[in-house]
Automatic annotation (TrEMBL):
Location within or outside the cell: Cell membrane; Membrane
Protein name as annotated: ATP synthase subunit delta
Pfam families the UniProt entry points to: OSCP
Topology in the lipid bilayer: Peripheral membrane protein
GO MF entry, a single one: proton-transporting ATP synthase activity, rotational mechanism
Role: This protein is part of the stalk that links CF(0) to CF(1). It either transmits conformational changes from CF(0) to CF(1) or is implicated in proton conduction.
Gene from which this protein is expressed: atpH
Entry similarity comment: Belongs to the ATPase delta chain family.
A single Gene Ontology CC term: plasma membrane
Organism superkingdom: Bacteria
Length: 182
């Protein structure tokens, strides 16, 4: 889950990079930065209040040598505003913004058994047509499912599991008015 502050900062960086024609370079820098500070030790150092802020900033800027000027200025801005934590979420927030601009959404398809590439592609194609966006699905195994699939994309869920269908049938039967015997 990405925080609102991190998403706003990522959106601002994305918009500025797009306006300056440096989107590919900044996206590459952000990806490399996310890898560099993604480990527990690096993230702990970045946020450690016992280490002088200038020392932490210098260490981070060292990892950004050769990066686009916008990326470097952005990192300096985060430090000057006391928002170093934003840098930890920047990679994912920037990636999600890029996907949104490209009309791509991610989803999860849960199944009792692993689905093959063709089954996942078929589901993704059908959902893409339904949602008007390109859907990328990740298959997760849920051994508690009897059969069928449950697909979650954003805040929407499509339950095509056997249990889901039985629950739906039970609910519809409960809504049918009972009549006196004939």
């Amino acid at each position: 889950m990405i925080g609102q502050v991190a998403q706003r900062y990522a959106d601002a960086l994305y918009n500025l990079a797009a306006r300056e024609g440096a989107l590919d370079a900044v996206a590459s820098d952000v990806s490399e930065l996310a890898k560099a500070i993604g480990g527990e030790k690096a993230s702990h150092f970045l946020l450690n209040p016992r280490v002088d802020r200038d020392k932490r900033e210098a260490a981070l800027l060292g990892t950004l040598s050769g990066a686009h000027a916008l990326t470097t200025k952005f990192a300096r801005l985060c430090f000057s505003k006391g928002r170093e934590a934003v840098l930890l979420e920047l990679g994912e927030a920037f990636r999600l913004r890029q996907m949104a601009e490209d009309g791509v959404v991610e989803g999860v398809v849960e199944s009792a058994r692993p689905l093959d590439h063709g089954e996942i592609a078929s589901l993704a194609t059908n959902l893409s047509a339904r949602l008007g966006k390109t859907v990328q699905l990740d298959n997760r195994i849920d051994a508690s499912l009897i059969g069928g699939v449950r697909v979650t994309v954003g805040s929407s869920m499509l339950d095509l599991t056997v249990q889901g269908r039985l629950d739906d049938l039970r609910e519809r039967l409960m809504r049918v008015p009972l009549t006196a015997g004939r």
